[in-house]
Amino acid sequence: MFFRFPISALILATAGFLLTACNASDSEPTQHQPLPQNLAEKHAHWGHYGGDEGGARFVSHTQITPANVAALEPAWTYHTGDLAPESFPDPFNSPALQTTPILARDTLYLCSPRNRVIALDPLTGEERWHHDADPALTGLYSVACRGVAFHDSSDAGTSGACAARILAGPLDGRLLALDADNGKPCKDFGDSGEIDLIADLGDVRPAEYALTSAPTVVGDRVVVGAHVADLRRGGVPSGVIRAFDVRTGEQVWDWEALPPEQRVAGSYTPGTPNAWAPFSADSARGLVFIPTGNPAGDYYGGERNGKDTFGSSVVALDALTGERRWSYQTVHRDIWDYDVPSQPLLIDYPGPDGPVPALVQATKMGFLFVLNRETGEPLLPIEERPAPGGGPAPDALSPTQPWPVLPEPLHPTELTEEDMFGFLWFDRQACIKQFRSLNYDGLFTPISTQPTLVYPGFMGGSNWGSVSWDPVRKLLLANTSRIPAVIELIPRAVVEAPGFSEPVELQLDTPYAVKRRPMLSPLGAPCNRPPWGVLTAIDMTTGKKAWEVPLGSTRDLAPFPLWLNLGVPNSGGSMVTASGLTFIAAATDSYLRAFATETGEELWKARLPAGGHATPMSYTGKDGAQYVVIAAGGNRMLGSTMGDAIVAFRLR
What is the three-class DSSP state of 222? Predict the structure, then answer.
């Protein structure tokens, strides 16, 4: 976990002092406006991981409103069973229930951390079927599955078994196709219902290649990337993106994040950037959008030999052929683990001459890149600003970095001595002393053999929870964390010397191992002043912040009565309704909250059985009631309560 607040420190903290960092807007909400018919139809069904294929996380259902949201109560709870001791034979495994269900054929489909694919009755939560993928989990730390995908062939005249199918990617590098009616493998897909994704990748070692995000279905293609383990070795598997025929499992194209002249026909290059975050798609334009990570070498960029070309970028690929249409790099020669961590958001940008098809990419730096979806050209200004030099491989660094002028950053772009925080005088002084000792020259300070301050830290900023979009109010909602990190390169000779015993990540095939940690005070809190987690609304007509509020309290990190609304580190995402509500859990305090989308006022919260580190979704059932559903499974790294629950709420 990152931190736990000591009792002695919190007794001396005061909420009034701590809550001055950000304020909600006090503007009056406007009356709800009817949705245009096209938006109402597009967002009536949560059929994709992000609600729609463009990741808006917006629903047109309006039964639950700011006026009645206080009457929400639990409707049903389902337990996946994944916390049973036998579920995780490796004590290293840390389960993370991060799934967002999808709704299709009057059924909720989801996955558990150990890849049980589950179908539930949306009115009662009763299990209709489950399929246990039984993946090999040895050596995996974060054991997570964030979602599944759905494809229906019945409109093409297909009937019988697997006319509709669920696509899922287990943690051991397979792609499954299951009958949506009963969970049985689709025998016509790949090898009796599955494809071995690692068979063509060469030397793949345990826990190096895993699918955590939902596959992306575009027409009759299913497109997948994978999480390739960080900080292991230079020869980790390629991060290749592949598309398969959704019915037969035949591979139809691949794309590797390398310049075309460096690609080797018939093989894949180890260490190329992977794409572990969710993808987005534009079926009408035949495009799939890929957020990429940085290449192997991670915090050292001296020996990448061109592998940086499409690293830490968003890439538009032709869904039929895999041809690259355009790409935009959000970090040049990334040595900060600032890989693009979130699903690209597809919106109609409210331009001065009318709507423009756009893509908004949230990053770990807290930047929002607003690009033309068809060309990749910026729709809002982005400057190339000078970046600090130095470090052990200065020639491998970029002299400039892209810096969006608008929208306003979601995260502070610098940390100063005045920002240092402590619950007590000596606590703050220790943080000031630590700050003065660190190598720090602002954002993009090169990682060094001296302890280097990195802010945002490796959590972000934004992360895999992405952002949500209200197309009526033109507001983008984003939750971010604000935790600085300290990262240090340790020379290989030091690590390999007799007697060296410090915990490091090896980063083999480079001259340096890596040591990293959050920047904490002696009393265990982050050294920067709170809030340590916020929820922000960006007005996309201006690019300015409409409001910003702390997200989460110290409950479950501290004893009563020391539950302070400081804003805490968070993991998960938000969901927006047409009636003007933003639902989000994500924080460490095991609450699902509803905020007024226009003002940021908290209108409701409900206690969850565990930390809700997932993204909620919503639908209207056949009983006419609107439901809000969230996975509550906790997160050991963040220190939140662990669990295995899927919880649904409806109006009483």
Answer: strand
